[in-house]
Structures are given as C-alpha cells and as structure tokens.
Prior knowledge:
By secondary structure, the chain is α+β, with helices and mostly antiparallel strands. The protein has one domain (8-116): Roll (2,3-Dihydroxybiphenyl 1,2-Dioxygenase, domain 1). It is 18% helix and 40% strand. It contains two helices and eight strands; from the N terminus they run βαββββαβββ. It has helices at residues 18-29, 74-83, and strands spanning 8-14, 32-35, 40-44, 50-53, 66-70, 87-95, 98-104, 110-116. It has an eight-stranded mixed β-sheet, with helices on one face. It is globular. The relative contact order is 0.19.
Amino acid sequence: MTNVHHHFNYIELPATDLSAMKAFYGAAFGWTFMDWGDTYVSIHGSGVEGGFDLSKERQPSADGALVILYSDNLEDSQAAVEDAGGLISIPTFPFPGGRRFHFRDPSGNELAIWTPGEG
C-alpha cells in the first residue's frame, strides 16, 4: 500500500457479523481478508485497503462508511481542514501504528486523517 499525502487511504465499514461480511465480499468481489483479533478484519484486493469493524462505537447505517485519508503531517492537515471550514468531530488520538483525528465536511459527512508513528 502506498501512502500519498491527502489521497484516499483506507475505507472502514461497520459490521455486525464479521464472518458474514467476509463471506459476502469474498464471494461477490473476490476480496481477501486478514483477521486482527475478534473485532477487526482487514480487506485486501479492493483497490483501496480497508477493514470491517465490529466495534460497538460505529454501527452500520445509511450514513455511510468512514473514509480515512493519509497525511505526512497531521497537524498541518488539521489546520487545513479547519481553515477550509471543516469541524473537528474527534480530536487527535493515538491508536496502534499512528494517530488520527475525525472531521465533518460542510455536508456533515465524517472522515478521518491519520499519520503513522507511535500509537
């Protein structure tokens, strides 16, 4: 996977049943998967890397998937989002492998931007 500043980087889909998600997407599109514990599965072969998340914090809905962009400099990216009129919905937080923040665009869509490093 190539990380390119401010390009689409990762698509994360909420799930209620990881086995059913893998079976459907594997059969429908030929995607492959890697399990990361009991609550997360990464997607491979979809054109953009992604994952299925069994987290109770994000539920499947008509509101859409969480689109995550990559940044070479998270602070500069946050400033650019805010300068352009975006609203920070979740401040920067660490996770295994990096840090990210979430924001809402003018239409209310929530996206996130991440950078690698200590999580």
